[in-house]
Amino acid sequence: MKKKIMGLIAVVAVAVVAGFNVYKTQIIVDLSTLALVNVEALAGGETEGTCTARVSCGGGGPNDFVECSGRVCERNATVLSRWVKCDGIKTSC
Predict the structure, then answer these.
(1) pLDDT in tens for each of the 93 residues of the chain?
(2) Which run of H or of E encompasses 74?
(3) Coil vs helix vs strand at 71
(4) Burial, 47: exposed, middle or buried (Cβ in 10 Å; 0-12, 13-18, 19+)?
(5) Of 53, 62, 82, 89, which residue has the fewest beta carbons closer than 10 angstroms?
(6) What gap in Å lies between CA 84 and CA 92, rounded to an integer?
């Protein structure tokens, strides 16, 4: 009788340990999935980002500038030439 009770306790202990390991593994998978979704969301902001280029035309007024937005932006502000270029479209003062 004592051997049967000890055997039963051993079987229950193994079942509890196995159940705990399965539970712990499921939690790790859920956290990994959540982390992956967060990384993809952060990376999505980088690939779909935009830039803005702005240059003053030198007149001194509040609206005396040219500006554009796009994925690729350039600007030039020299004495002879003032322009902005976004996604290949150039706008001059």
Answers:
(1) 888 888 888 888 888 887 777 666 665 555 566 666 677 667 655 545 688 888 888 777 777 888 988 888 888 888 888 889 988 899 888
(2) strand 73-77
(3) coil
(4) exposed
(5) 62
(6) 7
